[in-house]
Amino acid sequence: MLTTWLRLVKASNFKTWRLPPTPWNLKSAIPIYAVIGLAVGGAGWYLTRLARGPTVVWTKSNPTPWNDVKQDENIKMLDVNSRFAKSGMVVHFDAPDPDYPLPPLNEIPDEDADKPKEVYKLSTTLNGFPAIIFGTATFSRIYNDADHISGVTPLRAARLALRRSYGLNVFDTAPLYGDSEIILGNALRALEHEFPRDSYKLITKVGRYPTGLEYTPEGIESSIARSLRRLHTNYLDVVYLHDVEFVADEKLARREGNHVAALGQEKEQYGLNENQDGETYTDKDHRILSAVKKLFELRDERGVIKRVGISGFPLPTLLRLAILIQKRLGKPLDLVMSYCHLTLQNSTLEQFKSAFGPRAGVKQVITASPIAMALLRPSPLQAHPAPLEVREAAKRAVQLSEEWDASGTGLPDLALQYTFARAREIGVPVAVGLSTLEEVHASVKAWHEVDVEGLAAKEEWVTRVKSVQDLFRDVQMLDYSWATP
User: Fold this and answer.
1) Which terminus of the chain, N or C, has less C-beta within 10 A?
2) Catalytic positions
3) pLDDT given for residue 263 in this prediction
4) What is the mean pLDDT of residues 256-284?
5) How many Cα neighbours within 13 Å face the side chain of 16?
């Protein structure tokens, strides 16, 4: 074949071969142009629409687009596994976990910084919980880098917290927090000779994961099994149904703002009128009931869970669901946890807390995130869900705090002290994200200042609190809850 081709080339005297000109201007080709143009234009429009959708674009005005994706919703051009997606199974619970090996315990530093400061002894407990719950979302890349979570610092922080004088013996984790369960479980297994399983309590969550939402009973059971494996235990002290507002019916008078009116003149709009108790709205509420029923089964019939709760952000939704669960399932929740609602910027949990017991039979309310998801730090999260007015007021609060503490810790310290003061007053434990020895020491110190030294009664401290809250009040953002999801 090659010889034949060479002969043809030689015969052509190396002249270029050309095909006859194609009559592209023939009228018969016009329909082809029309079809191709329509197809290309339509595809371009659809791709642009997908790329600019609210569940895709990450902008200042839409910092968390993933929050707009609902369970069973597909935002891709092609659903490669529609049966799997429609079942809600979005998590591979049997996938292998990453490995975070630790050195032998005798090679891990145990210095003066690893010992509790006796003067700051933490003794206060609230319904079997210490005043401070050790939050371990920090044992992930959400808040720390890979070197931190793969090193020995998480173990050292957990060990310090557990030691006798401090007694921070409740750990809060979740599958949503990356590899937090794995890091915490490894640390506690390494410390089992000093701190056996019955010396601490474990809180984890089900239902929300980095890959999506999974509220089916089968998914919950698989999630519990994985958490038991990761945490190296055969039981869990508390399990929350995580971020219930992402699945439940949205029965709100408004998605954002001050929701305290849900306890009074607007309670019907929030589904909280007494004649609305136990009322469901769509199958979304039934998903919540089905999931909690599975958790009750794991608690009451199989003993792998000691207490059952729900967690989330909007207080009216948490209260409505707690009432619904008691009415429909005949059993109250043990706990309810909300975050960012007992802070310098928003303290509306104080009003709602008293309703959970009488209305829904909830035994314990817990608050989390006294720093408001790092809002009240000099360097807040880039994608914080609070509106611009709240974030700008927080920046001004950081600048104001430099007048009494130039180190940059003035506002976070004040925020932690404020939450502890209010939590102590209303009997609510506080889950605080901790990741270093310094943070453990600082949290216990702050509680001591409030509980023993009476810090909240000192005029200078009260003045600082008021000056910070005035910054939020001036822009009508004090006690403002942002929309979620």
Assistant:
1) N
2) 177
3) 97
4) 93
5) 3
